[in-house]
Amino acid sequence: MLLIRKIHAYVGLLIAPSLLFFAFSGLLQIFSLHQAHGSYHPPAIFQALGNVHKDQVLTKAGGHRGPPLSAAAATSDHDHSAPAPHADAQQPKIKTYVLKWFFALVAVGLFLSTLLGVWMGLRFTRRPRLSWSLLIAGAALPVLILLL
Hints:
Blueprint: H1 2-30, H2 44-55, H3 71-78, H4 87-90, H5 94-123, H6 128-147
Helix pairs in contact: 1-2, 1-5, 1-6, 5-6
């Protein structure tokens, strides 16, 4: 059991920076804060985080990507026999908002739980250099790969 706990701690420290990244950037994406829509223009860092999260690149080759097609636009391009949806059908339903807020809560919980795991992995170890090295490597490797 001790070996399993050590493996868990070391693997956790290695992947914790990516978990923190995906929890945060996923939270931004839940509310479409990484894309321009209406009069909202996201900060460049939010766009970059969205690009890395969704496409594993820092910048898009085609430039700025607009908001996603609505389900009605996607359907009309491919299936001309489908009737046009009513205006009410295009409005998000209450369950969509509830689900978004639930997933936002999950993202915050994952972020906080991961931070606590990092603290425990660094605080309660007999090999602090190895633990710090794994954490730094977990943060540095994705950045280096993106920059290549």
